[in-house]
Amino acid sequence: MRTVRIMLTTLVLAGLAISVFAGDGNTTSEVSISVGWMSLIPAFIAIGMALITKEVISSLVFGSIVGAVIQSLATGKGFWNGLLLDFPVALRDALADPDHMSVILFSMFIGATVHLITRNGGMMALVKIFAARARDRRSGQLVTYFLGLAIFFDDYANTMVVGNTMRPVTDRLRISREKLAYIVDSTAAPIAAIAFITTWIGAELGYIQDGLKSIEGSPELLGSAYGIFLESLMYSFYPILTLIFMFFLIWRKRDFGPMLTAEREARVVIGEGNDFAPAEYDEVPSEKEYLSNALIPIITIVLGTIAGLVFTGSQEVQWQQEQGFLGNLANIIGSSDPYRSLVWASTAGLVVGILLTNVRGIFGLKQSIEHAVDGMKFMLTAIAILALAWTLAGITENLGTATFLAEQLARGFPVELLPAIVFLAAGFISFATGTSWGTMAILYPLVLLSSWELSMQQGLDVQAAGAIFANVVACVLAGSVLGDHCSPISDTTILSSLSSNCDHVSHVRTQLPYALTVGGVSVFMGILPASFGVPLWICFPAAVLSLLGIVSYFGKMD
Predict the structure, then answer these.
(1) Where does residue 59 fall: left (phi above 0), alpha (psi -120 to 50 degrees), or beta otherwise?
(2) SS3 label, residue 416
(3) For residues 181 and 501, is the Cβ–Cβ distance under 8 A?
(4) Structure-derived torsion over alpha carbons of residues 36, 39, 45, 48, reported in degrees to the nearest 10
(5) Which residues, 6+ apart, have CB-to-CB distance to 321 below 8 Å?
(6) From start to end of 307-354, where are the E strands?
(7) Alpha carbons within 13 A on the beta-carbon side of 296
(8) Taking Cα atoms as reference points, which of 236, 149, 249 lies closest to residue 191?
């Protein structure tokens, strides 16, 4: 691992040095080309290598280099330009992006805070509280599950807080890191995608509003953007069914596929009756176990994030009396800057943790800082993976990957099939590019107007066309989340591995069958029947019973 970190650091420094000499006139952000099916090669190479070799850093590097070379050849600059210039510049651009740097800082400060409250005894006190309610493997997973639902307002904050908080508890209950990462990952994005007030809603409402502007008479025909969002929740089969499926797995104490193997291996490796402590907890923490040492910094991060969202959002929109409290709050948080909010909150949490540790005389300032820095060091590998995933995403964006895939939708077919096709396309684009938000940005402008026009052309009445429209809105979002769950190069998937201290490829490999299972049920028991007019009160129970049957038939006690 140390060798990998040294190689990566050298690569980053070399890339920055080369890009500095390259000047500002040849950045990848200024390149926009279309190479057709070849645009899929870099992402597929990275994903394929990661799944085969079980080593994600080299896979991302190789995929990015191949993409940079394809980009350079397509623009007539040659092989060596792509290898020695375009790739380092893409890496530089990924690291220089303010939003990306905010995620890196947030991750580092979270890591610093978690390590500090582990060393000052706060985490041990918190673990004992959770352990009292998590008496066995099922209750431990349920506590993790409901904690994930509780932190609904942002997927990044969800993964980092829940994973880091619950990891010591699940370790002691002999729950595999893969299962923890799955619960963390599969509660974060689904709940953030469908909750009324989250950091996702601003982007969603913006895309819906843009789509409405292009439809003549849309306010009278379809209603407001927020109203359409609320209606689309009825068709959000994948996020809702993912949460239900996960609950069935936990409650029935069953697993199947690679996850079953991981759970059984965890019990053998850890051993019956033996406590398990991961490497970062090997040192004996302080004997002074104050619960508030952990609880106050964590609450500071959670409430600080919410306060930051409200503050930054209120700078962008005005309170409108006619929209009511929830409508205004949704608009404010939807218009907020989640990246600044997360950095502010994680910084405040770390500062509070240091102050508590010093005031109570557990550690001095110098030792507290040293423990905080040690916590940041644990994040290096995951941050490296994030940086390389962003590099690959930037290159695939320049190659026009997402746009090319989206344009394949422009074919003649019955409008009732459109929601399912959109769902599958969104999942595939999100899987290939590693970004759910990028997928939404590409697909929403293309499919919203198209779905309405196609409905009108095929003679649907306004009510039926409105139902198809709401279904399409939901399917873009749901498909993006599905692809995000399946992709090894997704940032939220990487963060889930990071916070759970789980091998990243193992997390993807064990989560993939579950995500695809729910995705299949969503299409055949939800999206397609609903598109052809089957009532939702039939679709949802049928889908839920199908998932329960799958868990009962294929699942085995671990």
Answers:
(1) alpha
(2) helix
(3) no
(4) -70
(5) none
(6) none
(7) 15
(8) 149
Which runs of consecutive H residues, i.e. helices, occur in 134-236?
Answer: 137-150, 155-172, 177-194, 201-213, 218-222, 225-232
Measure the CA angle with vertex 554, ends 548 and 558; round to 5°: 100
Give the DSSP per-residue string, 495-550: HHHHHHT--HHHHHHHHHHHHHHHHHHHIIIIIHHHHTT--HHHHHHHHHHHHHHH
pLDDT in tens, the chain (558 residues): 444 444 444 444 444 433 443 444 444 444 555 667 787 788 778 777 766 776 667 878 888 888 888 888 777 777 777 777 788 888 888 888 887 788 788 878 877 887 888 788 877 777 677 767 778 889 899 989 988 887 776 677 678 778 887 888 888 888 999 999 999 999 988 988 887 666 576 567 666 766 676 666 555 556 666 667 878 889 999 999 999 999 999 999 999 999 999 998 887 765 443 333 344 444 445 556 678 888 888 888 888 888 888 888 888 777 777 777 777 777 787 677 877 887 898 899 899 999 999 988 888 888 889 888 888 887 777 678 778 877 887 887 777 766 666 565 555 567 788 899 989 988 988 887 777 776 776 677 667 777 777 777 777 887 888 888 889 999 999 999 999 898 888 888 988 998 888 988 899 999 999 999 999 999 999 999 998 889 999 999 999 999 999 999 998 886
CB 147 within 8 A of CB 323: no
Name the H helices within 378-461.
380-398, 401-407, 418-433, 436-457
The residue count of the chain comes to 558
Candidates 484, 418, 487, 483; CA nearest to 446 is 418
**Pairwise CA distance, residues 379 & 381, whole Å:** 6
For the chain, domain boundaries: 2-96, 99-271+280-378, 402-530
Buried b (16+ CB within 10 A) or exposed e, 198-220: bbbbbbbbbbbeebbeebeebee
Q: Are 478 and 183 in contact (CB under 8 A)?
A: no
Q: Where are the beta strands (DSSP E) in 167-262?
A: 254-255
Residue 227 and residue 195: Cα distance in Å, rounded?
14
Q: How far apart are the first and last CA of the chain?
A: 31
Task: For residues 291 and 305, give the distance between their C-alpha atoms in angstroms, rounded to a whole number.
Answer: 21
Q: What is the pTM of this model?
A: 0.71
**Cα gap 295→301, rounded to integer Å:** 10
Angle at 29 between CA 25 and CA 33, to 5 degrees: 105
Which runs of E-coded beta strand occur in 247-303? Answer: 254-255
